[in-house]
Amino acid sequence: MTQPKDIEIAQQTELRKISEIAETAGLTEDEIEPYGRYKGKIDLPLTGKRQSGKLVLVTSINPTPAGEGKTTVTIGLGDGLRKIGKRAVLALREPSLGPVMGMKGGATGGGYAQVAPMEDINLHFNGDFHALTTANNTLAALIDNHIQQGNELHIDPRRISFHRVLDINDRALRNTVIGMGGPTSGTPRQDHFDITVASELMAILCLATDLHDLKAGINRIVVAENYDRQPVTVADLQVGGAIALLLKEAIKPNLVQTLEGTPAIIHGGPFANIAHGCNSVLATRTALQLGEYAVTEAGFGADLGAEKFLDIKVPVLGKTPDAVVLVATVRALKLHGGQALADLTTPDLDALQKGLANLGKHIESMQRYQVPVVVAINAFTSDTPEEIKLIQNYCQQFNVEAVEADEWAHGGDGTTELAHAVVRAAQQPTDFKPLYEADDDIVTKATKIVTTIYGGRGVVLEPHAKAQLRRYAKRGWDKLPVCMAKTQYSLTDRPKQLGAPKDFDIHIRAFEPRLGAGFMVALTGSILTMPGLPKHPAALDMAITDDGKISGIF
Length: 554
Description:
Layout: H1 6-12, H2 18-25, E1 32-34, E2 40-42, E3 54-60, H3 70-83, E4 88-92, H4 97-101, E5 109-110, E6 113-116, H5 118-122, H6 128-148, E7 155-160, E8 164-166, E9 176-178, E10 189-191, E11 193-195, H7 200-207, H8 211-220, E12 222-226, E13 231-233, H9 234-237, H10 240-245, E14 254-258, E15 263-266, H11 281-290, E16 293-297, H12 302-317, E17 323-328, H13 330-336, H14 349-367, E18 373-378, H15 385-396, E19 401-405, H16 407-410, H17 416-426, H18 442-454, E20 458-461, H19 463-474, E21 482-485, E22 505-514, E23 519-524, E24 543-544, E25 550-551
Parallel strand pairs: 3-16, 3-17, 4-15, 4-16, 8-11, 17-18, 18-19, 20-22, 21-23
Antiparallel strand pairs: 1-2, 2-14, 5-6, 6-14, 7-12, 9-10, 12-13, 14-15, 22-23, 24-25
Helix pairs in contact: 3-17, 13-14, 14-15
């Protein structure tokens, strides 16, 4: 029998009121602010003595264009841990409208492993992304207005580095000219839009530890250079207070539930291919306070989201993972082994064998941090027992347990074996080793990421990037953590170079300082900070009836 569509499953599930979910999570009535029947915001800080749970980080191999169900596994694992008697709380990222309306779909899981209400989470969830977009564009307007009204700070309009954003894929806005229309319409200049999830404000919100920290980060944002090539910050503009107050509600983590009633904290959503790819520090800390096991995820493959979680988020979070779950699928491994995208449902043990090197590289990368690793083989109906067994046998050489997870079809019942494996792994001793030292310079840090995590030779800086680094070193910005903006499909900076390549370089064309967030973005290859919509965007299949029933979201 054909399984119903994701949205149909979600709409057929009777949800519990958010007050009940809050009580399940251990929140008091004063700590939850209801946003309707099934959503709420958590009012921090939490009162009273709270536990410190174990932290489980879910990541994946390099995915196919459709993704490998990492969020679905994360949700199913939370439900599975509760099935075996563990108090689990999820900490997830919020979906961007870019993929919701584009090709990949939403970020609420799938099948019987979903967070709900899925339509509301995928569409304008509690207004957080709108607040971020508004705050970002308010700052952009204030910069242009400062120039228009006399330019006391002597901002060079040609060197404004802070850009407007929009939470949808819109390639037409990648390069724009603004200020047209004469003297009353501003100073004409070239500009471009980023997608909201690439905004520095998103990164600051997700790395802030409280409202005071959020305000400090906002004030550190470098928005431009003046005519003497000196940096101009939000603090110089004296508008940090205005930007922060626009985010006063967005900084509060959101509480929802899985279809099985597991508490899920969903907050923040930077993309991992162009930003740091992790939900907020506040969400993860809250999940650790409320659960025996806090299950969180990092975007895309372990080469992107997990590396950034471990090297950028962990130092702020102050807690290292007790276990890493690496999601793999038969279909993705066959793609890495040379099988055509259109043929991935056809059994091919030879292609699978060749593609296993990609999984092996990610296992080695995560073990480099000296944290226990479990492989979750996310089940698809086209998988064969022989293919599953081949993956499990391969993982034995790394002393890693590989467990099939079937949360899509069976919810928490399909992940109890995985849950037991995660509990066993989380009980093992850890000796976390960061990838680089804080005092390493940016090139050294980027090189360690490339050689250790990607398996390449090193980095090649284009002339513009070299000139930037020389200037940034004089300002003392040369020791920041590095956030690599790179394709998610390959360990290299070339999307079609699959598997586990060797002897390659990562080409950095430019750096973007994110002093407010506390890291330096390295733009590699042809990565874009404003994606485009596909030929057949998901939006073409969406509809809403006169009585408000939504269809077409997945």
